[in-house]
Amino acid sequence: MHLKTADGGWSPYLAGALAGLLALASALATTAVLGKTSYLGTSTTFVRAAGLVEKQVAPEHVTANAYFTKEKVRVEWQFMLVFGIFLGAALSSLTDKSFKLEGVPPTWAQRFGNSVAKRAVWAFLGGAVAMFGVRLADGCPSGHGLSGLMQLSASGFLALALFFGVGVLCAHLLYRGGRHE
Amino acid sequence: MNEQLLGLVTGLIFGFLLQKGRVLRFEKQVGAMLLRDMTILKFMLSAILVGMVGLHLLAALHVITMSHKALNLGALGLGGALFGVGWAVMGYCPGTAVGALGEGRWHALFAVLGMLAGAALYAELYPTCTTTILAWKDLGKVSLPGLLGVPPWLVIALFIPAVLALFAWFEKRRL
Question: pLDDT at residue A173 above 80?
Fold first, then answer.
């Protein structure tokens, strides 16, 4: 087993185990700072961010919405965590030269062509469906997958099995049948 | 330290590790779904093994509390399946899409915008969901050992060798 990958990254086992230690440190730190143990997750932030945007045009609508009221539209711990993921990824990639401006993912381009507009439309639609799904399921691969399985939550096992099972099925349907001409 | 600063520092380290593990790539996400490249599963399961043992120790010492999400069968079934479809098309999960933007893959911006739209749509339909799918079959905030009526350490003792065997298989098949 190698600790470094060919492109200068770290072994996913090593980086993952360190993320496990981070989850433990975070559980302790949030218990101390927030007064309640909080677990790593990201998807509720998209609700709060959507609420913050909607507030600019229709503040009353946001105040009256039951879901925005439930999740509290404000820049809290998880919101900053998601912003931190962006900064951490930028810091890591800029310092090991793996940062790359890319308009269409190579795997996608091979199958569906180089059009940025086509990729943008499908990424938007896929994102909308995925986010609607994780809000209904009450967690994403971080919340249900990482945090749920670490705690042995019954919901985490079911959610991750469905995420992966349906993902595998759909990816095979999408990428079956060779390359884009 | 305040709440926001703690979140920022935690996220910064998390994003750094996700990027170093090369988990943020569209190629790795789709590669896992096509069962060709198991990088993201190696990362996730390694984090889960370490976190699982540690969290149960910390909970046994009463220094943290567990926070299970509800085992709401209808919501998890439909929501989980919708996520699977969206994940395959988008090629990212919510956290990795934001991270991918950080490493310059600006096509992830469209995924992020789509997710904001999906969240806004869910907020509009939430009242309808609460009286329908969310009210269907909720088994409550239970753990797997709780549901099975066995001690958590028994599940952990079975989970660890199963994951290690899976890792050995990934390496043998060069996945």
Answer: yes
Sign of the C-alpha dihedral, residues A101, A104, A110, A113?
A: negative
Chain A residues inside the 8 Å CB shell of B120: 50, 53-54
Q: Is the CB of B83 less than 8 angstroms away from the CB of A166?
A: yes
**Contacts across the A-B interface (CB distance below 8 Å):** 516
Which of B18, B110, B119 is nearest residue A47 as measured by Cβ atoms?
Answer: B119
Residues 82-141 of A with CB under 8 A from B: 82-93, 96, 98-108, 116, 119-141
Q: Where are the domains of chain A?
A: 102-181
CA quadruple B67, B72, B77, B83: dihedral, nearest 10 = -40
A87 → closest Cβ in B35, B45, B102: B102
A90-125 pLDDT, tens digit each: 999 999 999 999 999 999 999 999 999 999 999 999
Q: Which residues pair with A10 in a beta bridge?
A: A4
- For chain B, the maximum distance between any two Cα atoms, rounded to a whole number of angstroms, is 50
B147 to A154: CB separation less than 8 angstroms, yes or no: yes
Give DSSP secondary structure letters for A5-57: -TTS-B-HHHHHHHHHHHHHHHHHHHHHHHSS------THHHHHHHHHHHHHH
Structure tokens at B122: 């869910």
Q: Which residues of A touch B78 (CB under 8 A)?
A: 133, 136-137
Tell me the pLDDT of chain A averaged across its residues.
95
pLDDT digits (tens, 9 = 90+) for B97-145: 999 999 999 999 999 999 999 999 999 999 999 999 999 999 999 999 9
Contacts of B43 (CB under 8 A, 6+ apart): A12, A13, A15, A16, A19, B18, B21, B23
CB contact under 8 A, B13 and A22: yes
